[in-house]
Design goal:
Number of strands: 4
Largest sheet: 4 strands, antiparallel
CATH topology of the largest domain: Alpha-Beta Plaits
Distance between the termini: 61 Å
Strand order of the largest sheet: 2-3-1-4
CATH architecture of the largest domain: 2-Layer Sandwich
Order of helices and strands: HEHEEHEHH
Structural class: alpha+beta
Radius of gyration: 23 Å
Helix content: 55-70%
CATH superfamily of the largest domain: Sporulation related repeat
Amino acid sequence: MKKILITIGISIVIGSIFAFVIFKNINEEVELVIKEDNTVTFFQVGVFKNEDNAQNFMQNYNSSLIIKDNDYYRVIIAILTNEEAILKEQAFFDSLGIEYYLKKENISDQKFLNKLQEYEQLLISSSEETYNTINKNILKLYEGKEK
């Protein structure tokens, strides 16, 4: 009887260890899939501690937005998810001599992401003359999204 209880106990411990390892790996994979789908790329041109400085700096750009991030104010000139659109936008800003930093972040607002994908398709199929207009619309959309 004692041998049977020991065997059952060892089986439960080993089974629990395997279940924990498998669950942990599946959980990490699910998190990666979710994060990839909701990752947006911000084209950031400045970070400021003072909101007035950020406001003054954003006047240098046709389309820009200030995002408060903890104690910092980030000046953003574009938000995209699609790799092709990101590459086109990089080439556009590079041609204008604009220095930027690509900041990736996860967004959970699916309505915003769906609308953003529509704008990205426009950006991909349009000429550089319309990029500023498309960027303005995307930034307005982001500014008005539910936070």
